[in-house]
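Worked Example 4.2. Consider the chain below.
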Amino acid sequence: MSGRLNAAAPYGRRTWLRHCSLILASLATPGLASTQPVILVVGDSLSAEYGIARGSGWVALLQQRLDKERRAGRVVNASISGDTTAGGRSRMPSLLQQHKPTHVVIELGGNDALRGLPIASTRENLTAMVKAAQSTGAQVLLVGMQVPPNYGKAYTDAFANVFSEVGQVTKTAVVPFLLKGVADSPKADELFQHDRIHPREAAHPVMLDNVWPALVKLLGKGS
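Applying the procedure from the previous section yields the following structure tokens:
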């Protein structure tokens, strides 16, 4: 009798079919995992949980909301306190290569303003970051920031407009102001830490609410 599997025999056929099913299952599992959206957040201290408990920032809350609503998605927080658009631009290629995100959220620019960096440089860096992410097929969400009126109306307006300008040029979705409902709240004093720059833990659910609608729309589009 031959030692080879006889597919015509009942037992041999069942074994062969079961073996094929196991192979197909093992091949299907990685494929399913690869379809899960990967959301890369590249930001500064507003996204890096500066001065608050780990796991209480808006980026961590984003993962919690995705899980609660049973939406597929894995959030990667690559935010660094003090980062500028120049820093984010230099880090972006390696982040894209390492994490292979389907969606990229860019929350940078505030430190550019605090350091008095030229608005033209901020615009150029944000544009480069968006295009780098788009070149990989990722959907991009640009999160805007505003500066206090004591910077002067000309600078304040020009800085606020940078994000919408980049969004128009790159055809990218834009959240106009991450701190809407926080910085302009009647209770702003209670929502900021003593430095008057970084939000307290209580403000982060509001920040997530500002980002959530635009991000959900992009998640519906896929990559």
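Confidence is low (pLDDT under 50) at residues 1-11, 19-33. The chain has eight helices and five strands. Compare this with Example 4.1 before moving on.
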